[in-house]
Amino acid sequence: MDKRPIGIFDSGIGGTSIWGKIQELLPFEDCIYLADSKNAPYGEKSEEIILDLSIKNTEYLLSLGCKIIVIACNTATTNAIDYLREKYKVPFIGIEPAIKPAAINSQSKIVGVLATKGTLSSSLFHSTTKNHAEGITILEQRGTGLVEIIEKGKLQSDELYRLLEAYIKPMLEKGMDYLVLGCTHYPYLIPILKKILPADIKIIDSGQAVARQTKTVLKKFDLLTTSTELGTYQFYSNGDEKVLFNILQSNKLNLTVSFKDF
Ligand code: DGL
């Protein structure tokens, strides 16, 4: 019953991987996406700064009339979602590394998690791991430098391949059979990861689960649109909007990408 847009934010262009899943599942919903690329990466910043940036993004999306906020960033979710839920009236959807399905399905009982320093050191990550991965060895690997390369749009560079190989190989040697991508930028690394990983190693991320949860919450609060026209999508970047545009380019949907200094 509600035509207002879904607001989505990330520290940069990575959360577009989440937007992609949302628009597939909820094709009639309008969305506004904020890429806070000027401040990326969040993962190396203090909890206080991540919280301030998350408040800034939320308030901007609310000023644009959004009915729900999707935090398409593991680092911002794990550090700020409790505060945001308490402070603002709209519902918030967050994203966390998909430890639970990996732990349930792992045969070797060894699960690798590639995520930012900010996510791996958060208390939410530790409680999720404690609650959902009993008897599982979790190999934590910081993806230092990956977000910066992706933010430059260099998705095919040798530098990226070498860095990923250095992060992944030790986890393979220790017997991981599931690799959890704990940062929304990382689904864009899947083509390279598939070259590095043996075919029987599963890669898992949380994009689809976030889209399903967004639909469930919109339904619960009677916030789904009744429109039967395909949604429109506004993307704003406070960094290089061309990089954001390029990552979306294969898409033929009704979208606009612009620079905005939010
Ligand atoms: N996409 C963000 C996440 O999911 C990237 C974090 C960063 O900016 O370091 O964690």
What does this 3D model show about the protein?
- This protein is of the alpha/beta class and 262 residues long.
- It has helices spanning 16-25, 47-63, 74-87, 99-105, 117-120, 123-132, 146-151, 158-173, 190-196, 207-220, 241-248, and strands at residues 6-10, 31-35, 68-71, 92-93, 110-115, 137-142, 178-182, 202-204, 233-237, 255-259.
- The protein folds into two domains: 6-95 and 208-259, Rossmann fold; 99-205, Rossmann fold (3-Layer(aba) Sandwich), CATH 3.40.50.1860.
- It is 43% helix and 18% strand.
- It has a six-stranded parallel β-sheet, with helices on both faces.
- Helix 1 crosses helix 10 (207-220) and helix 2 crosses helix 3.
- The longest helix is centred in the N-terminal third of the chain and has 17 residues, at 47-63.
- Bound molecules: D-glutamic acid (DGL).
Summarize the helices and strands and which ones pair or pack.
Blueprint: E1 6-10, H1 16-25, E2 31-35, H2 47-63, E3 68-71, H3 74-87, E4 92-93, H4 99-105, E5 110-115, H5 117-120, H6 123-132, E6 137-142, H7 146-151, H8 158-173, E7 178-182, H9 190-196, E8 202-204, H10 207-220, E9 233-237, H11 241-248, E10 255-259
Parallel strand pairs: 1-2, 1-3, 2-9, 3-4, 5-6, 5-7, 7-8, 9-10
Helix pairs in contact: 1-10, 2-3
The structure holds D-glutamic acid.
Please give the oligomerization state of what you see. single chain
What is the structural class? Answer: alpha/beta
pLDDT < 50 stretches: none
Instruction: Measure the end-to-end span.
Output: 29 Å
Shape: globular
Cα radius of gyration in angstroms:
18 Å
How many domains comprise the coordinates? Answer: 2
The SSE order reads EHEHEHEHEHHEHHEHEHEHE
- Spatial order of the strands forming the largest sheet: 4-3-1-2-9-10
Ligands present: D-glutamic acid
